Amino acid sequence: MSGEGVAEETADFDGAQGAADADFDGEVTDEERLRSMRSTLDAFELEDDDRDILTADGEFIGFAEPSLEAFPVVAIVGRPNVGKSALVNRILGRREAVVEDIPGVTRDRVTYPALWNDRRFSLVDTGGWEPDARGIDASVALQAEVAIELCDVVLFVVDSRVGATATDERVVQMLRRSNKPVFLVANKVDDSVLDPEVAALWSLGLGEPRAVSALHGRGVADLLDDVMKTLPEVSAVAQPKLAGPRRVALLGRPNVGKSSLLNKAAGEERVVVNEIAGTTRDPVDEQVEIAGRVWTFVDTAGIRRRVHLQKGADFYATLRTSAALEKAEVAVVLIDVTQEISDQDLRIIDLVLESGRALVLAFNKWDMLDDERRRYLEREIEQDLAHVDWAPRVNISARTGRHLEKLVPALDAALESWDTRVPTAKFNAFLAELVQEHPHPLRGGKQPRVLFGTQVQNRPPTFVLFTSGFLDPGYRRFIQRRLRETYGFEGTPIQINVRVREKRERR
After folding, report:
1. Counting C-beta atoms within 10 Å of the first and last residue's C-beta, which end of the chain has fewer, N or C?
2. Burial track 13-46 (b if 16+ CB lie within 10 A, e otherwise)
3. Binding residue per annotation — 364?
4. Does residue 295 have a known ligand-binding role?
């Protein structure tokens, strides 16, 4: 930002009276100024947590070391609405997979880390498999077939109340061709009275049916004990995955191109893509390589306009999208350039800001942009996205992969800023010069003073200011702007917390 821009933004502060504790002296070292500003706090009432902040170096989170372990894989398959996702949740011991009493809720191939009797394995939930499927159902069925190929053990789930159907028999044929160990799971056996109905499933030719109730947990423990005996110690199919790659959440409105971007980056049809809005419902993790760098991309469900008005699968999908954002380090918010920037886009960006994650804006479908729409888009960006003008912007086409490699420098810049730590001495030198040039305006005949500051955390950069009075929101924003000018902080939100402390009474 230019000097003229700063002068305009801080016009309210220029006429203020008062000065900082001491005149800014270019000959004073940062360490000397730090000691001087720190000593001024001795005259103010401090609380115990204030002293903890002043004596600590900050809570800076480190990265986990990469892990090359590949856990064995258990895939759960079956026709729609037999309770596959309910069984996933029962095995995991928590509600991870979206469950609703209608067929076709799960669409993608979703992998969850699981643990049973101190053995770790990967549990894969799939969409319902149907023969001769068309459209989106064909894509869902394909993902289920891929899951069978890429697993060590298959749990074939059937509805014990319905019995063996023609679709179940077609699934059996596919399973036999795979030559994978298969456990026939007869679900919805909620009571021992229903046990005799399970015997009819012997006709499928897969051996003894295992009677379970995913809803109540009946028989699931015995099933898992037998699965662990069959599951190999080392997976024959799973590829070693590094735990180190940075986690990137793909966010945006429904049908904005998140799944297309993940598929293009992965180089395969990793998730189902369809013109139907809301195709993705469960967050899908995938390690991808872009421009020689490995990343963990998390495809998420599109966030709709009003979460509180959503029902069923869409409501829980939105909640899981928020949870996926919390586990990510940087969010790529996709914006459809062929449509007007909407309140929905802005709400998704605000969600990222509230979560404190780094932010990159990806303007998708750039190859479909004409000159007239481009002019309107530039005006919309200037007006609607001014509050995130610090976020890197990338123009891409998820469908064709155009300019996908430009995501890498944008992600690097955002994550580097998100990790940044400003030394306390440097930060207080910055504050001393700032308040000397632009002191806080008088309010009620008094002038709040910034006594001392420190960065207490990164990811995102979080600063605490000790002051003698309340700082106007405009002055806080001014400090944020000057921080960005001085230290960059491209692609990361900055949080500034103010602690007002009163002077001790003289005795």
Report:
1. C
2. beebeeebeeeeeeeeebeebbeebbeebeebee
3. yes
4. no
417 is in an annotated binding site: no
3-60+421-500 CATH: 3.30.300.20
Instruction: Tell whether 3 is in a known binding site.
Output: no
Q: Is 301 known as a binding-site position? A: yes
258 labelled ligand-binding:
yes
The answer to the question of whether 117 is labelled as a binding residue is: no
Give the model confidence (pLDDT) of 197-221 as tens digits: 899 999 999 999 999 999 899 999 9
The pLDDT of residue 27 is 59
Closest C-alpha among 157, 150, 166 to residue 84: 157
- Please tell us whether the domain made up of 73-230 is placed in CATH 3.30.360.10: no
Please tell me the pTM assigned to this model: 0.60
Residue 252 annotated as binding?
A: yes
State yes or no: 85 annotated in a binding site.
yes
- Is 426 annotated as contributing to ligand binding? no
Count other Cβ atoms within 10 Å, centred on residue 172: 19
Was 78 annotated as part of a binding site?
yes
Q: Is 26 annotated as a binding residue?
A: no
Q: Which residues are registered as beta bridge partners of 499?
A: 466
Residue at 203: amino acid letter:
S
The answer to whether 497 is annotated as binding is no
CB 109 within 8 A of CB 146: yes
Sequence-ordered strand ranges (E) for 87-135:
110-116, 119-125
- Confidence (pLDDT) at 341: 94
The answer to whether 357 is annotated as binding is: no
Amino acid code (one letter) for 159: D
Residue 83 annotated as lining a ligand binding site: yes
Tokens matching residue 208: 């003894």
Distance of CA 330 to the CA centre of its chain: 7
Q: 356 near 495, Cβ under 8 Å? A: yes
Q: What is the CATH number of domain 247-418?
A: 3.40.50.300
418 assigned ligand-binding residue: no
CATH 3.30.300.20 placement within the chain: 3-60+421-500
Distances (CA, A) of 179 to 74, 151, 458: 14, 11, 50
Residue 125 annotated as binding?
yes
